[in-house]
Specification:
By secondary structure, the chain is α+β, with helices and mostly antiparallel strands. Helix content is about 15%, strand content about 40%. A 4-stranded antiparallel beta sheet has the order 1-6-5-2. The longest helix is centred in the first third of the chain and has 23 residues, at about 1-25.
Length: about 200
């Protein structure tokens, strides 16, 4: 009987000693593998990881605690958390310096990409790419056709609308604990406009 009590106490002690630090101590966002920090991406890119704390303001509610051991609970997800302001990037500009109208017919090439500079785990990256439906930090060339008549002194430019959005990425570690990170993603909105430049 004493032996059973001793084994029970040891089992309880091991459970408490291994579970309590994992629950009580904050988890650092370390990844055993990396995506952007191991590769030489543009260091001037203004996108960075925000981290574990939930940003101020309204947002999705707490998803609850997923306890237990084993290989993890749930699958990783990335959802749009908040949208940032938009701005335009000029890709082309033509001004008619003649004294007569000028016919302008051209095809403008511009690059698009979903940019992040955050160091995130491969699991988080996979979830983010699935949510975006695209690769990240990879440029894709697109074209836009301009067909207009410019009066003397008139200009016309091609502008691509860009936006930085915050994505909430939820992953689970080997103990089944939920980890939530917030990552800025800068990308074109899909809007391309022609107007004076």
């Amino acid at each position: 009987m004493q032996l059973r009590k001793a084994f029970g106490a040891v089992a309880l002690g091991v459970t408490v000693l291994t579970a309590v630090p994992a629950i009580a101590l904050p988890q650092a966002a370390f990844a055993s593998d990396c995506y952007t920090s191991c590769d030489p991406w543009d260091v001037n890119d203004p996108i960075e990881i925000i981290g574990h704390p939930v940003p101020d303001g309204p947002g999705p509610g707490y998803g609850g605690f997923f306890g237990g051991g084993g290989t993890g609970v749930g699958s990783s997800t990335a959802v749009l958390y908040s949208k940032g302001q938009t701005w335009e990037e000029q890709e082309y500009c033509r001004r008619n310096g003649n004294t007569i109208p000028e016919k302008l017919t051209t095809t403008v090439q511009y690059n698009t990409s979903f940019k992040i500079t955050a160091s995130i785990s491969s699991e988080a990256l996979t979830a983010l790419k699935a949510s975006l439906g695209a690769e990240v930090n990879t440029s894709e060339t697109r074209t836009h056709t301009v067909d207009a008549t410019l009066n003397p002194g008139q200009s016309l430019g091609v502008f691509v609308e860009i936006q930085t959005n915050v994505y909430q990425i939820t992953t689970y570690d080997g103990l089944g604990q939920q980890h939530v990170d917030y990552v800025n993603v800068t990308a074109p909105t899909g809007a391309v406009t022609d107007h004076a430049c």
